[in-house]
Structure formats: C-alpha cells, structure tokens
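re: ur question from earlier - yeah i can do the single chain one, its not a big deal. heres the input i used so u can compare w yours
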Amino acid sequence: MGALVPPQPVLLVMAVCSRYGEALDWAAARAAAAYGPLLCQSEAFDFTETDYYQATMGSELKKQFLAFHNLIDPGDISRVKRTTNDWEAEYAAVIDCPEQRPLNLDPGYLTLAKLVLATTKDHAHRLYVGDEIYAEVTLTFRGKRWQKNDWTYPDYQRPDYHNFFTSCRQSLQERRRQGEPFDGE
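and the output i got, formated as tokens:
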C-alpha cells in the first residue's frame, strides 16, 4: 500500500473572457479580493479560435489570464469554479448589455507538470472532482515545453499562451526551490 502524501500547493490561474474591457478589470479586481494579489496578468489576447461563444457573449472577444501569488490546495478547484460561476451571474445581472453572458471565467491550476482546467461539463477525458465540477489536464509540460492533448482547446495551443504559462511555471519552480509553504500556513 502506498503512503498517503498531501498534495503540493499549486498556482491558481484564471482565464477571463469578455468583449468588454471593464469586465476584464472587474473580474481581476474581484478575483484578487477573493484569492489574494496577482502574481502576473497577461495581455488581453484576441480570442478568435472559435465562434462557440458568439451567440451568448458577442463578437470581438478578448481573453486574459490571471495568476495569483497565493498558492492553493488543488482540491479547492471545485470550490473556486463554483465561485467564478456565481461571479459570472452577478456580473450579468449588474451590467447593461445585450449579451446573455458578458463574462466567462475559467479557473484552473498550474503545477510544474501540467495545466488543469475546471469545468461544469463531463466528458470522456474529464474527472469528477466534487461539488458538480469536473477537471481536465489541458496541457502537459514535457521536453521543456507545453504540449497539447487530443482534447486541448485550440486557443490553449497558442505560443503566446504558452509563454505566459511558462512564466508562471518558472515562478512556481523558484518558490518550490525556496521551500515556500502554502500562504496562510
């Protein structure tokens, strides 16, 4: 029988998608208030790989990534996803816009070996992580670079996304070298 070992702390990341710059700003402020200061924030990338969200979110979407200084337990990702779902509904209720869904928040976490995204949708490659939430390994880090899986979303295959995730990974790696504990321990 293998010994039970607590999980290593992970870097919380969040994809924020909207056609409204103020929605990106609102989400970053709301997330930082809940999860602590931002470690880094990407530029707002043009999100053009799919028109899947156009009916509910409109066109000319931007996607921005947030990474948080405070490390989390990976088991907390289902709670984070449920919270971000509530924030999406809250933002839609307070903004005056024609879109049904003016803001999309997709949290996940990054380890030295992988990027995991949380979702409400089950599929063959997703595992149930509790509280009506599933998760998938979207990218793996092998051979000194991010590698896709058969199910990896097209935009997550972009080199500019990978550059951001590599920067986050390097920060996590340095913190691990220094033996940094969970924030709050």
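The longest strand covers residues 62-72. not sure if urs matches, ping me
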